[in-house]
Prior knowledge:
Aspartate Aminotransferase, domain 1; four-stranded parallel beta sheet
Amino acid sequence: MGNHALTSVNIQPLHLMTTTTLTKRNLPYIALGGVWEQDDVDAAHHVIAAAVGPNGNFFPLPEEPEFQKALASHEGAKFAIAVNSCGTALDLCMIALGIGPGDEVIVPGLTFVCSAGTASARGAKVIFADVDPQTLCLDPKAVEAKITPRTKAIIPVHFAGHAANIEAFDVISRKHNIPIIYDAAHAVGTKFRGTPIGNAGLASCYSFQSNKNMTTLGEGGAITTDDSEFAEKVRGLKTFGYVYGAKLRVTQIGYNYRMTKPQAATGITQLAKIDRVVAARLKNYQLFMKKFGELEGVTLPSGINEDHGCHLFVVRIDMKRLKTTREEVVKRLKDSWQVGVAIHYPAVWSWEAFESVEYDNSHTPVTSEACEQVISLPLFPSTTVEEIDYLVVALRETLASFVS
Ligand SMILES: Cc1ncc(COP(=O)(O)O)c(C=O)c1O
């Protein structure tokens, strides 16, 4: 740890401890944080070892159906279709809806690039609508203002694990007859007013990539839906258009977006403990917020309660109060405190790939501001109280050292 951090202690209100009592820590952002355990290793090992021998194989049965059943049940949906990522889940939904050139798809600009990229990849025009300043999820009113006869889908994101306003989007969907596809990459375990979110809209797309609330060997995803026709369509699309039955049929031109057997096996063990994992995240988020208290120019996440999936701990920093840049804040946290942080997210339209695709990002002031302010802290299920104390002091001191 650099000396700078240990010598600047004059921050108000700092009622926790002095920096001299702190033990040095190394808190990287990229970490499984206690999500991955021995039972997951055993589950993967079991199917890998069972495939040894002339009759062994990696065909998914019975793990995949078992995993899909458990996911659908946990997320409150009738059907779950396992795939190899959330990106491919979103792609399949766009393909199933027949999205193409001339269509418009409404998305937030404060999201991972693929929530929007999936519509661009089909040749549709991406329409960015603004996010709600409290939740940072897509704002239904802003969405409604952007609907045109060309709007073919809306993709709200349950940002950081906070549910988007499903009730308002249901109303919009019915009124304008537009399907809602939720990007639920952050949202295994998220609830909307006490109810799991897996049957919201037409479909929800989940991610089990390495740093998500649960992971299937580092990659993986799923689509959940209550719509049997849509389920059948994406189920076929993910596996070359096959329809299994007494006679194998190929009913549509499809792809190979399948999840592997070892992945599905770990999905079962991961899901079995997801409630414990999300509860541990929630406890740590609440502890951090209690210990950090209030600090002018810092907005802590809102709606941190039993409904929140607690996937990302996103803090907003009013950069106008500091005589530095966000990059310098990130660097100071890393260099002086060994605290890794992430940015979720730069505005989607700021990526160079979006220079060459059709989009509209007008009237999105909340998104533009938030994208300049956000940093995500490394708070995981396994983060200890001592580490939380350290993170609180690291963030307070870092910010105090830049106040103009
Ligand atoms: C909001 C959001 N959507 C989609 C994705 C893509 O997920 P995957 O990596 O499983 O394709 C991510 C991944 O980080 C994400 O954060």
